[in-house]
Amino acid sequence: xxxxxxxxxxxxHGTNPQNLIEYITRQKIYDSLYWKEECFGLSASDVATKAxxxxxxxxxxxxxxxxxxxxxxxxxxxxxxxxxxxxxxxxDNEDFKYVRALGAFYLRLTGRPAEIYALIEPLYNDxxxxxxxxxxxxxxxxxxxxxxxxxxxxxxxxxxxxxLPKREVxxxxxxxxxxxxxxxxxxxxxxxxxxxxxxxxxxxEEGNVSAKVAIEDRRRRRxxxxxxxxxxxxxxxxxxxxxxxxxxxxxxxxxxxxxxxxRRVHSDEGNDDRYRSDRQRSDNYNGRTVDDQYDRNSNxxxxxxxxxxxxxxxxxxxxxxxxxxxxxxxSKSERGDxxxxxxxEGGNGDASATFEGSAEYxxxxxxxxxxxxxxx
Length: 376
Fold this sequence. Notes:
Layout (H helix, E strand, L loop, with lengths): L22 H9 L1 H6 L5 H8 L5 E2 L1 E2 L4 E2 L1 H12 L3 H9 L4 H14 L2 H8 L8 E5 L4 E5 H10 L2 E2 L2 E2 L6 H7 L11 H8 L3 H10 L3 H41 L9 H7 L6 H8 L10 H35 L7 H4 L23 H10 L8
Parallel strand pairs: 1-4
Antiparallel strand pairs: 2-3, 4-5, 6-7
């Protein structure tokens, strides 16, 4: 019963909270000595007390992938599922950095996206060192790096993190109010009334070298942006005027675009790229592009050509039918009175004139073979 989730715990992301940690890792935690001796029957306050004794972060280490104490306490929080206020107190704790790291990791596993950004982003202003135990050794990380990895990475401490939408998506949907709040914002509002330019100017006048560099960099980027915008606007005006004049000169008497006239008008340029770009400009005269007019005329020509070919084919087929006749045998209704009459019907009774396919014809053929005539 020590490994069972609290019966009053609600499901997280549609599953048991403990299932957020992979099955194999979870079984290794259940079999670890620290879980059996130190994590039995703990409450949220007891977990906070145990977290103050942590000396490092990490997932699994060693040849047999032994779980760290940090991971054992994270699973314990998933098992007992503390209240949201307790988790916020974990994150707001500035005295014990590993308690804050444990609360941030648990919130990333179970929290809502807007809540995760609101509570973990302030950790960007915490630059304290943290020891991280890897599978083969140790490394030094920082609290702001922990916050960045929790918000941008898919895995941390060997545990797959639930999908987190990007901040821009939540901002456009209205779940987050405004950009991330900077730690300098209270100071800027106090000294410069919220104007960052004015605040940098004040620091530069006081002799702050970084403020002077920042002001110069902002001025240079502003000038480059204005120069690019001016150059783009001039090119748009020039290209639009030239394209309109050249396109109008390439029209024929009926106002339709002629590709040969267009090439002849621009033959002095000798620049195919410029020719193609002019054809792609919009026609301010009637709201259609040059390519649209050119394609429309080409389609009309192809349609007329196809219609003429079809009419010629029909005429030729009729003339051939009149000349050679039908290749199929005519029916009785089509034959009419063309069948020669036999002697019984008042004809001359000539055997050569017997119509092929009639009863007399088949009786003659059967007589040649020595067979009896057909019964009438």
